[in-house]
Amino acid sequence: MKYKLDEIVDYKSESSFEYTSKELKSGSDVRWCAGCGDFSIINQVQKVLPTLGIPKEKITFVSGIGCSSRFPYYMGTYGMHTIHGRALAIASGLKFARPDLSVWVPTGDGDCLSIGGNHFIHACRRNIDINVIMFNNEIYSLTKGQYSPTSKPGQVTKSSPFGVVDNPFNPSSLALGSGASFVARAVDMDIKTLANVLERAAKHKGISFIEVYTNCVIFNNGVFENFRDKKLSKEYTITLEHNKPLVFGAENDKGIKFEGHKPVVFNINEGNNSINDAIVHNEKDSTLAFILSNMTYNSDLPRPVGIFQAIELPTYDEVAIEQINVAKKKIGDDFDLETFLRGDDYWQGQ
Amino acid sequence: MDRPKIELDEVTLRFAGDSGDGMQLTGTQFSHTVAQLGVDVNTFPDYPAEIRSPEGTLYGVSSYSVNAGAKVHTSGDYYDLLIAMNASSLKVNLNYLKKGGIIITNNAGFSDKILGLAKYESNPLEDGSLSDYKLIDLNINDYVKQKITNSSLSVKVIEKTKNFFALGMAYFIYNLPLNYTEEWLKQKFKSNLEIADINIQVLYAGYEYAKNDERIKNTYTIKNAKLKPGYYRNITGNEAIAMGLVAASKISKVPVFLGSYPITPATEILHKLSEYKSYGIKTFQAEDEIAGICSAIGAAYGGYIGVTTTSGPGLSLKVEAMGYALMAELPLVIIDVQRVGPSTGIPTKPEQSDLNLAFYGRHGEAPLPVLAPSTAYSCFEMVIEAVRIATKYMVPVILLSGGYIAQGTQVLKIPEVSDLPKLDINYYTDKETYAPYKRDKVTFSRPWAIPGTPGLEHRIGGLEKEDMTGNQSSNAQNHQKMVEFRAKKIEAIANDIPDASVYGEETGDLLILGWGSTFGSLKTAWDHLNSKGHKVSFCHLHYLNPFPKNLGKILKGFKQILVPESNMGQLAGIIRSKFIIDVLQFNLVEGRPFKAIEIEDKVLSILEKGNN
Fold first, then answer.
1. Contacts 24+ apart (CB under 8 A), B107-116
2. pLDDT class for B216, splitting at 50, 70, 90?
3. What pLDDT is stored for residue A235 in this prediction?
4. What share of chain B is helix, strand, coil (3-state, %, to 5)?
5. Above pLDDT 90, what percent of chain B?
6. Which of A23, A331, A337 to mutate to test the interface with B (most CBs of B within 10 A)?
7. Which residue, among B234, B287, B409, B425, would best test binding to A if mutated, counting the most A CBs under 10 Å from its CB?
8. Confidence of residue A334 (pLDDT cuts 50, 70, 90)
């Protein structure tokens, strides 16, 4: 049966493939604080999207609540600003209903991992084809500075004047453990890595989870300084590249190798060491992805950025829609409503 | 022996036993058989929330009521015949057996142990306490074992057929044919014909047994309903809702998306719609109730008829998302199959206590349309109506069904497709004239523009929106305006729904005012009162927000108004505040439907007082 929306789903226009970053601005005043890391992310998103061959009208941003979730208002695409924590549930319905759309969820550490934690793990488990950009600033900002599920133990905030008691989530490990097929991390200031993971996420089939370290200038300024600062980041971060050895440092003189099952830092140029001792990254190795993700919060190790994992798995939307297509074939293209209403167990009144 | 055959207008039976005794199945078979003969049937299953409660216990009793006759609206007040497969099922159900009614018992279920579990101090089959009834007691297990002698199946499996023995007896007593059940068994067990065969043998054995038991003094026939020509089927309210959604989708050429989380007694709608994949229905079993409604909201933004199904506790969880959908002005159908609350309450028992939540249960000024089906067939009609209102007015609509009509069955005359309402649902595509919150002058509805439409890219959200553009706005005057628009939209629906109708005189001393799933009991009561010449009228509401436009006038026409509800007076409260009139309440929260006789007694007592 042909639905009225099939016309819109099937609509193909040449011109809508060609649009500029500028056309992706909605024209609404952007109300983030000056110096907020969110600006960097929206700039990269607006830069990358026009290069992907997705018609503008097929792009939809769905967000929850928080600073990051204002994102759809600033995009010149379709968008929904919804309820705190629920963006992924809404986006899942939209994507399953409309697999022709490119669905993006900008979210925050509170929105995604605290109030929306349940929807997050289930979206990962289903591997539904949605792109999630989680702006992690390790603080609740829109509510003016309470600790979040990624805040550090001991951190003093308005709601933890004596220090945070909770342990933080490691978002990438949570995503991997929940079954997400694409998991990456970027830093707001490192636009090269950010642009790369955004592009790769958009092209990935299945759920893509990108954690972006985002500086909150007002309530948590400087928390990511080691990873944002050009100089410091060379020592404190390591960029994961597929099929390349794990090397970092200002002089590229340090590597990560295994000691037993533990990753440790070693100096490439010392003694008999060589770059060949370094672990070679493999995006398709989910065991390695877990190990690398678990380097997070280990102060002896650099913080990994880039793509932890990118593997191909069946997606919810594809499999569920295939079930429907197979079922539809049994009754043909259309069905007779009266026969349907009658069912199998009817009788005729005289 | 020859027995007199007596024709009855109406009979009521109750099949009762342990949860594992197959009483739901036996009752269903009986109801299907009588329905095939053109008799009107209404049924109600009554079972515990637990899957298999401990054997023989009072709380493990599972029952199925069948009311059959020329025209029936309920599953019946008091039974003519009770089949009790054990002592507990006798104890639980005896209160509702008519004096002089027939009891068929399986004595195998009256062991000392089970009598103890049933809290009987002496065996009621032997102590004379059942002398007001016609007792036909026998050890069905023994008869079954005598009948099935050379079978490869275990004794345990053979004994499980005992419900069909009892069914065979009931078929004899009511002069019913066995072939419908026989065919059904052959179909059901076509992969294991031996099971089919022993059940059929036992069914016939029960029939033969009854023929020879001289304690059965009469047999009965049930008056035919004189149904209009056409096709008929038995249907539950939940099935009717699922069918109605398929019909709405087909008529409107708009696909349906159900986001749902399993909950009693609404789950069958999810089951049914999940079977209907070949009809293009998409179902999403979400991780929780919130994701159920939220996924439906996402689908609605994508151009689908978004639907979510739930019961009380789930409705509580969906409240915030309902507010969002009304703010975003997206079409959505929220189906609440009400059950006993608050909290987990009694999950399998019916109540009408979510009306206040449906009316008022959102923060902010957030009115929503509320509809309530009255019968299984009405579930079919009203869900289509909910789709019509939701899509025409771009608004979430709450449909308040109830456990009683959702799980009970009714004979349905299958509607002609040409008689179904037309649903003209369109997406907005015109770039030149589009504004996300530009409103229709009559309906106050906004245009439905969906992703994929070039040039109509727009943002919606839960922040207050600027009139026309939909941009976020904290402007005070704009907020006032938008709140008023959202209220006017609901009010406008009143111009687009049928007037309420009154059974009996349009004015008078007393009006019975009901809503939703109590219709059967109220209509039966009114029929009885009316046929006895009592001056009383009856009005039943399917539209609760907004009310039908003529309701105020109807209410003013009566000196007294009685509002019977399965809650503590929720409609009564709304009527009082809306129309500034007082009403008399009649409230029952025993986890069961009203009995018609209870309504009749109440009405008579009011009429008597009026005459004094």
1. B107/B137, B107/B138, B107/B139, B107/B140, B108/B139, B108/B140, B108/B141, B108/B142, B108/B162, B109/B17, B109/B18, B109/B56, B109/B84, B109/B85, B110/B86, B113/B56, B114/B55, B114/B56, B114/B86, B114/B87, B114/B88, B115/B87
2. very high
3. 97
4. 40, 20, 35
5. 93
6. A337
7. B287
8. confident
Tokens (6 digits) for B248: 């709405």
| CATH code 3.40.50.970 for B233-419 | yes
Topology (CATH level 3) of domain A12-228+314-342 = Rossmann fold (3.40.50)
* Rounded-to-integer distance, Cα B97 and Cα B78, Å: 5
Residues 6+ positions from B583 with CB-CB distance below 8 Å: B513, B561, B562, B563, B572, B575, B576
* Yes or no, beta carbons of B457 and A81 under 8 Å apart: no
Architecture of domain B502-611: 3-Layer(aba) Sandwich (3.40)
pLDDT, one tens digit per residue, over B239-254 is 999 999 999 999 999 9
Contacts of B605 (CB under 8 A, 6+ apart): none
Closest CB from B232, B295, B457 relative to A93: B295
User: How is domain B5-222 classified at the architecture level of CATH?
Assistant: 3-Layer(aba) Sandwich (3.40)
Q: Which residues of A touch B414 (CB under 8 A)?
A: 338, 341-342, 346
CA-nearest residue to B259 within chain A is A93
- Answer yes or no: do B452 and A77 touch at CB < 8 A: no
How far apart CA B49 and CA B65 sit, in angstroms, is 17
By the CB < 8 Å criterion, does B296 face chain A? yes
Q: Residue B612: which pLDDT band, with cuts at 50, 70 and 90?
A: low
Dump pLDDT digits (tens) for A21-31: 999 999 998 99
Ordered by start, the domain boundaries in chain B are 5-222, 233-419, 426-497, 502-611
Q: How far is B500 from chain A (nearest CA, A)?
A: 28
Q: How many residues does chain B have?
A: 612
pLDDT at A350 over 70: no
Put simply, whether A328 touches B (Cβ < 8 Å) is yes
In this prediction the pTM is 0.95
Check: CB of residue B449 under 8 Å from CB of residue B434. Answer: yes
Q: What does the pLDDT look like over A85-131, one tens digit per residue?
A: 999 999 999 999 999 999 999 999 999 999 999 999 999 999 999 99
Nearest chain A alpha carbon to B419: A338
Q: Chain B, 381-440: which have a CB under 8 Å from a chain A CB?
A: 413-417, 420, 425-427, 429
| pLDDT value for B225 | 84
Q: State pLDDT tens for residues A249-275.
A: 999 999 999 999 999 999 999 999 999
Same fold, B5-222 and B502-611: no
Q: Is B92 an 8 Å CB contact of chain A? A: no
Give residue limits of the domains in chain A. Answer: 12-228+314-342
